[in-house]
Amino acid sequence: MQQLINEKMQALMDEAAPLWKEWPQIKGRPLPLITEEALEFWMRCKQHELVIQKCRQCGQLQFPPCRLCRNCMSLELEWIKTSGRGAIYTFTTAYNPPYQEMEVPYTFAIIELDEGVRMATNLANCKVEDIKIGLRVRVLFNKITEEITLPFFEPDVG
Questions:
Q1: Tally of structural domains, the chain
Q2: Which candidate, 103, 132, 138, places its Cα nearest to that of 119?
Q3: Is residue 64 part of a domain?
Q4: Whether this model's pTM surpasses 0.85
Q5: Number of C-alpha atoms within 13 angstroms, CB side, residue 101?
Q6: Does the residue 139 lie in any domain?
Q7: What is the CATH number of the domain that holds 48?
Q8: Tens of pLDDT, residues 106-119
Q9: How far is CA 32 from CA 72, 87, 149, 153, in A?
């Protein structure tokens, strides 16, 4: 049974491989797909502002961006600036790169912002052995290309 599962998984990976090769990358890092819903988020990242959506009807905060409120289904959403601070909710550190050009180790984390929403990101300027759940972090903007600036997080020492 396990062999059948492994064969099916390999077939799926082989099928997806051409898509990954065509996905835009810089130094082995896949670049985000900028959708209509997320365009404002990415534009504000370029300005070094971390924003999330707020529903004008029910007040719900949400991330990632969506066309409607996940709580009340209202289309009346606005963007609000966050404090850019939060805590590590969970994380994993990768030692084997998915792409040869990608530097390792790197840490992928889910940050719970002080505003209450969670955001997937990478950690920077932090030794792997110092990373722990609950560690206070702040946003750090990393200009990848002229069009894309990614929000990373680093320990909030101040």
A1: 1
A2: 138
A3: yes
A4: no
A5: 7
A6: yes
A7: 2.40.50.840
A8: 899 999 999 999 99
A9: 28, 23, 10, 17
